[in-house]
Design goal:
It contains 7 helices and 23 strands. It has helices at about 1-30, 105-145, 150-190, 240-245, 300-305, 370-375, 425-430, and strands at about 40-50, 50-65, 70, 80, 90, 95-100, 195, 200-205, 210-215, 225-230, 235-240, 250-255, 260-270, 275-280, 285-295, 335-350, 355-360, 380-390, 390-395, 400-405, 405-410, 420-425, 440.
Length: about 450
């Protein structure tokens, strides 16, 4: 009985010791990665840095407008008695656009003509008086020299002659004034007929026949219509202050209008404003934009201008649907991609691979936590990428250049062919640190071959 108890104890001790040894060896193997694979690391996406052509693009939105548009306002006031044009008509320079009631202005011309005749008659009378007084003055001068008449009589004759000369000069001035008034009245009469100042299209018509309009001599006048060159269209877009520094005159652009979603138009930057448009000034939502003008190079409205080549107002029939060309109308909304700079054969990585780190915390100059707590230091923010080196992440400081739609130029710090970590976003922006253990999915790191080319 005693021997069986001791045997059981020995078995129990040996079994317990063996179990403890297995547990210890299993823990060591798990910690070393021999059993269970160890820590798999942070799962990331990678892509290879490649050489490609990058084009920096500034995107903005605006509305179409004619490059040249003239607002027609009458110089004189009156009732519209003839309006031979309609909105959309094509006109040529000198065509009649409207005619105001000329009766009052014709009456003014007749009154001024009568005034000129009256002034001329008065001038003739003063000329006759001047001749008579001159003869009297000359006769009395001879008599005075011979001592026949007194000095006072001679002086009276001289004074009468001088007065007649002055009245003659005044009559001549009145004739000139009457002629000027007549010319002004005639011009006012001519201005009752309003003609097109240039060839173009009636893009806006705000009056009707029978309506009374106010001339520009009285404040601003009535805006009757607009004549525009629709064969020369442009867009005025608002570019943010951070992007306008990259835009230069003559930069090329691609334009897309909402009305023609399947067609792209070529454009070129023609004007960049020097003064900004500030929205919500003084508030937290303040936005500073600069107007930039883009000329549409692909002219879709040539057919409209050609219709008026023969002269006179024309209202072209709507062409067949199969022959209809795109027509840009003032006010159509569109988006513009302005190509500001192109770099060829640049080492490029996806934009999401470039992030920012504080080198006081993770860089080679990082200080211990105790030192950071005792000393208030400014942030040392630098652009970095994380390179996948075997199963760990290596942080590399980079110098970047322009950014395209999907990739960014790396000017220094990275070589072609190195694998950079591109995602997920939370890992690149916050979680990754130098030496972080990572794992990548198979097949990642080859990158894409998409190239963004500038529009010529």
């Amino acid at each position: 009985m005693a021997s069986s108890t001791s045997t059981s104890r020995r078995i129990f001790y040996w079994g317990g010791g063996l179990l403890a040894l297995v547990l210890v060896l299993g823990g060591i193997g798990w910690g070393m990665g021999w059993i269970g694979g160890g820590d798999p690391g942070l799962s990331v996406d990678t892509e290879t840095a490649q050489r490609r052509t990058l084009t920096q693009v500034v995107t903005a939105f605006g509305r179409a407008q004619p490059e040249v548009e003239v607002t027609i306002s009458p110089d004189v006031s009156g009732e519209i008695v003839a309006l031979p044009v309609q909105e959309g008509d094509v006109v040529r320079r000198g065509d009649l656009l409207a005619r105001l009631n000329p009766d009052d202005y014709r009456a003014q011309v007749e009154r001024q003509e009568a005034g000129v005749s009256e002034a001329k008659a008065a001038l003739a009378e003063r000329q006759a008086d001047s001749v008579q007084t001159r003869r009297t003055y000359e006769r009395k001068q001879k008599l005075y020299e011979k001592g026949v008449i007194s000095e006072s009589e001679f002086l009276n004759a001289q004074s009468s002659y001088n007065q007649s000369v002055a009245r003659l000069q005044s009559a001549r001035f009145r004739v000139e004034s009457a002629k000027a008034s007549l010319q002004d009245a005639q011009e006012q009469l001519q201005k009752t007929r309003i003609h097109a100042p240039m060839s173009g299209t009636i893009s806006k018509l705000t009056v009707e026949e029978g309506e009374r309009v106010v001339g520009t001599r009285q404040r601003s006048g009535t805006e009757m219509m607009n004549v525009a060159r629709l064969d020369r269209m442009e867009l005025e877009v608002d570019v943010n202050e951070s992007d306008v520094v990259n835009v230069a005159s003559a930069d090329t652009a691609d334009i897309e209008f909402d009305a023609y979603p399947d067609r792209s138009f070529r454009g070129r930057v023609t004007e960049i404003a020097n003064s900004a448009r500030i929205q919500n000034q003084g508030s937290q939502n303040e936005v500073t934009n600069f107007p930039v003008t883009i000329r549409v190079l692909d002219d879709p409205n040539t057919g409209l201008a050609a219709e008026g080549a023969g002269g006179g107002v024309s209202r072209p029939e709507v062409p067949a649907e199969s022959k209809r060309a795109p027509v840009l109308r003032p006010g159509m909304s569109g988006s513009v991609d302005i190509f500001t700079e192109t770099v060829e054969n640049a080492v490029a990585v996806p934009i999401q691979a470039v992030t920012v780190r504080d080198f006081n915390e993770v860089g080679p100059n990082a200080k211990p936590d105790s030192a950071q707590q005792s000393e208030a230091t400014e942030e040392d923010l630098r652009r970095v990428v994380f390179v996948a080196s075997a199963d760990t992440a290596r942080m590399v400081e980079v110098s970047t250049g322009i950014a395209g739609e999907t990739h960014m130029e790396v000017r220094a710090g990275l070589k072609e062919g190195e694998r950079v970590i591109t995602g997920p976003y939370s890992a690149v922006s916050r979680e990754l640190e130098p030496g972080t253990k990572i794992q990548t999915a198979s097949g990642k790191g080859k990158g894409s071959s998409q190239v963004v080319a500038a529009s010529q």
